[in-house]
């Protein structure tokens, strides 16, 4: 049965967003562009986070909602969690901003 609690918006997406907490080892079926894929979740993934739905080589674009959101910093396998530990974001990381940048934002 196709998992209803996973969002894959565009057939070009290489990640999916979970709409419920998922457990590592859980096997799910997804419909991506009319094709059914079975993916085993590699580790626990919390609500709202992403996982790969196809292999993503290091340096490859991460695509969500049909848009580039960053680039893989390491090889990512289907079912792997996709987050700041393996993605260089297009949007920057506020948690890495220096004190000078943080001061400008708060003024």
From TrEMBL:
- Cite the residue spans of the region called Disordered: 88-107
The protein's matches in CDD domains, at most eight in alphabetical order, are given as: SAF_AH_GD (cd11613)
Q: Which domain of life is it from?
A: Archaea
What are the SAF domain coordinates in residue numbering?
A: 13-88
Query: What Gene Ontology molecular-function terms does this entry list?
Result: hydrolase activity; lyase activity
Instruction: Recite the UniProt keywords alphabetically.
Output: Hydrolase, Lyase
Q: Does the keyword Hydrolase apply?
A: yes
- What biological-process terms (Gene Ontology) are attached? D-galacturonate catabolic process
Listed name of the protein: UxaA family hydrolase
**What organism does the UniProt record list as the source?**
Haloarcula nitratireducens
């Amino acid at each position: 049965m196709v998992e209803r609690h996973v969002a894959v918006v565009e057939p070009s997406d290489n990640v999916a967003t979970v709409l419920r907490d998922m457990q590592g080892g859980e096997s799910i079926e997804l419909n991506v562009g009319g094709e059914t894929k079975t993916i085993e979740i590699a580790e626990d993934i919390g609500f709202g986070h992403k996982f790969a739905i196809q292999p993503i080589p290091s340096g490859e674009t991460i695509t969500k909602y049909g848009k580039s959101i960053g680039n893989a910093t390491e090889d990512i396998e289907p079912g792997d969690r996709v987050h700041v530990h393996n993605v260089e974001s297009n949007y920057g990381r506020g948690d890495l901003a220096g004190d000078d940048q943080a001061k400008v934002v708060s003024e």
